[in-house]
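Lab notebook, design round three. We kept the backbone fixed and only want residue identities now. Task for the bench partner: fill in a sequence for the structure below.
Input structure tokens:
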């Protein structure tokens, strides 16, 4: 499926939309889509304008990934526990 070429302004608007609509369940896909969109921006200046949203998405992924990892895995035993 071919996607229409977006203008730089439309691309930035889509990255912004992804940022504000991201949820714990969609963050991986949203970040991947935002990265694909970022790569289409023709100038460094336009990519810099998207930086705040990209950093925000990356932070959400990091925060939500840590929260999802809590409680998973084996419990460690401390000294004296058997």
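Proposed sequence:
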């Amino acid at each position: 499926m071919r996607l229409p070429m977006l203008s730089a302004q439309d691309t930035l608007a889509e990255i912004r939309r992804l940022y504000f609509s991201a949820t714990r369940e969609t963050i991986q896909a949203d970040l991947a889509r935002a990265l694909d969109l970022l790569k289409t921006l023709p100038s460094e200046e336009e990519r810099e304008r998207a930086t705040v949203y990209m950093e925000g998405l990356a932070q959400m992924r990091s925060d939500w990934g840590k929260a999802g990892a809590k409680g998973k895995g084996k419990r460690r035993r401390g000294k004296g526990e058997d």
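Keep this in mind before ordering anything: The mean pLDDT is 84.
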